[in-house]
Amino acid sequence: MQGYILKITPLKEEDLIVKVLTPNAIHTLYRFYGARHSTINLGYKIDFEIEYTLGNMPKLRRITHLGYSWLKILPKALLWQQFITLLASHLEGIERIDPFYFELLQKMAKKLTKQDAKRVLVESYIELLRFEGRLHDSFECFVCEAPIQENPVLVRAFLSAHGSCIPKRSFDKKKIAYLMRSGDGQFLEDEEIEALWQIVQEGL
Ligand SMILES: [Zn+2]
Fold it and tell me: CATH code for 1-114?
């Protein structure tokens, strides 16, 4: 089966506990250290098998790394790992999962080949918020609940607020409306994408 490595927890003698996101489940698996094992890393897409044994944590076996060309571009690979870590925290404690999350990572990995990493991450986060029913695109202030006429301030989960209610950086309302409606950030400057990515890093 195939999955993405969401989290790696080192144990004694280089054994690991590895969380792998597959289309329908997040598996928590034990991996013994051994010279013949292929290297694994956070965010890698792998082909693998699970060995079930009575009373013990299932084991991660027969790992093959299904690489992406952009993994060699360090800044891209690091941003991908940052997003994977945010996703792992977001999905903490969940075992059965909707295929949406696996498919989202599939799409992102493909887009990263050609597109700017931060744009891919911001646009994908919009998709995640929409899927989870958390995309608030009506520009109503989450503090005072009144409509926002001016450019909105955005906070965690891209909730919007009046500049007078939350004194933070505001964003161009038209561009953000387009981003939220279409999931497309083409009208946003790099500097705006950077500011949105900073918000994403506060947590999904
Ligand atoms: Zn307000």
Answer: 2.40.50.140
Helix (H) or strand (E) run with residue 118 in it: helix 117-131
**Ligand 1 center–CA 6 separation, angstroms:** 37
CA of 127 to the centre of ligand 1 (A): 25
The strand ranges marked E within 56-120 are: 59-65
Q: Give the tokens for residue 143.
A: 């503090």
169 CA → ligand 1 middle, Å:
14
| Residue 167 dihedral angles phi and psi, to the nearest 5° | -75, 80
**For the chain, what are the domain ranges?**
1-114, 115-204
pLDDT in single tens digits along all 204 residues of the chain: 999 999 999 988 788 999 999 999 999 999 987 655 667 899 999 999 999 988 889 999 999 999 899 999 999 999 999 999 999 999 999 999 999 999 999 999 999 999 999 999 999 999 999 999 999 999 999 999 999 999 999 999 999 999 999 999 999 999 999 999 999 999 999 999 999 999 999 999
Question: What's the DSSP call for residue 57?
Answer: P
Dist. CA 12 → ligand 1 center (Å): 51
CA of 52 to the centre of ligand 1 (A): 54
Q: How far is the CA of 182 from the centre of ligand 1 (A)?
A: 25
